[in-house]
Amino acid sequence: xYSKIISGGVIGVEGILIQVEADINDGLPVFNMVxxxxxxxxxxxxxxxxxxxxxxxxxxxxxxxxxLSPAAIRKDGTAFDLPIAIGxxxxxxxxxxxxxxxxxxxxxxxxDGHVNAVSGILPIIQCALKQGIKRCIVPKENGxxxxxxxxxxxxxxxxxxxxxxxxxxxxxxxxxxxxxxALIHSSNVSEYGDFSEVMGHETLKRGIEIAAAxxxxxxxxxxxxxxKSMIARRIPTILPExxxxxxxxxxxxxxxxxxxxxxxxxIGSRPFRAPHHTISAHALAGGGKTPxxxxxxxxxxxVLFLDELPEFSRNALEVMxxxxxxxxxxxxxxxxxxxxxADFMLVAARNPCPCGNYPDxxxxxxxxxxxxxxxxxxxxxxxxxIDINVDVRKVAYDxxxxxxxxxxxxxxxxxxxxxxxxxxxxxxxETIRFNSQLDTRLCNxxxxxxxxxxxxxxxxxxxxxxxxxxxxxxxRIARTIAxxxxxxxxxxxxxxxxxxxxxxDGEVL
Length: 509
Description:
The chain is an alpha/beta fold. It folds into two domains: 2-167, Ribosomal Protein S5, domain 2, CATH 3.30.230.10; 188-412, P-loop containing nucleotide triphosphate hydrolases (Rossmann fold, 3-Layer(aba) Sandwich), CATH 3.40.50.300. Helix content is 38%, strand content 17%. The chain contains 22 helices and 18 strands. It has helices at residues 39-42, 44-54, 81-91, 121-130, 143-146, 160-167, 180-187, 202-214, 228-232, 244-256, 281-285, 295-298, 314-318, 321-326, 368-375, 380-383, 397-402, 409-426, 440-446, 451-463, 468-484, 492-502; strands at 2-11, 14-25, 30-34, 63-69, 103-105, 108-109, 115-116, 135-139, 153-157, 218-222, 272-273, 286-287, 292-293, 303-306, 328-333, 336-341, 345-350, 388-392. A hairpin with a 2-residue loop joins strand 15 (328-333) and strand 16 (336-341). Helix 8 (202-214) packs parallel to helix 18 (409-426), helix 8 (202-214) packs across helix 21 (468-484) and helix 18 crosses helix 21. The longest helix is centred in the C-terminal third of the chain and has 18 residues, at 409-426. It is elongated and about 90 Å long.
């Protein structure tokens, strides 16, 4: 007897529907599985047979064939265990095929018949809904994640036996529903602290505010213990709240990576990723035989913080050049091209020298050549993609213990929102969203300078021997500063502040 169950998998960041076909016929007792399967999927045969036995379902001594189609697509993961088992039971006549029409089934089976959670549920459910499927059977631990798609009826199950009883109308299972707004609100509680807790560093805080307002990449250079990491970890507190669509984008990536927690089915706050400097290029950009998102993509719609930037391997740093330009990671494999979104704000920090004490000549033990070699680990093309460079000085005693409360996250966030709302209106008919994405043509279109401003830019261009790229970088930063001040035009004062934060292309010496 033949049966067909609808299941799903993930390719890149998109879900795909997979047909699980089961056929039981006379012949030598054998259990065959076909359909371009990974070793992980092939192992499902043993899990399914044992789970069926331990759930009091005995396989007939016949020829059992399982096909996962389309056969041209490689199947990976453990989400096919439950649909394979249900397909076999349907072919045995335990469940009727009509009960499973227009129903998606995914889940991993334990040997005792328990249904375990799987990764990538959200993109699979989104794909199923687009194909007109209105009901899905998912592991109980994945129920709230699947229920984020409100149009889908989500049936959470914890065992193979409960699925059979539900399909046989012996028990009723209440569909899973979630209050999406409440989940997002609970996720927005800040875990990073407040900028009011940062004493001193007013210039650095101003630079961070400008960077967040225009989504500019920023590099902080300062001695060890100056406060670079402390500042970086508070940046998400001044960024706008995620929209529901952005929440789903980020949650989809974390679901595919298997990083969602059962008690937190949606990512409601902007990601902050801070990988260690020993990370490999593949872990940073993503990859694997079946590519999964890396740290760059997990920082999508949020902040990627690279502390001790020169300590990262050259390959890991260079792999970021293309994502910083294209806002996505492209991974080519023999069986296809995978694209992962990577629209993030890069925040990097470095010591000025290997010992971390320069320019304090009383403590620094490094030679000039050592300092130059240390900072030469960061290539010029990568530095060219960083708009704002800030020197981080150690805070004086009076600032640290005697000064009053500084600018807090709430005030900085208001400035950021003001600037980003102006950019949203300005670029509503363009393909960009932020000033950092302005190219030469758009700079000339949206940044009009009067004679005084042009004379100032000429002076800066000639005195600092700027490149064309450096000149446009100043214009982009100045446009953001003007937006913070709600100015429609870029003035000389905005250009002067932009030149200050440009800081000679981030060069230490």
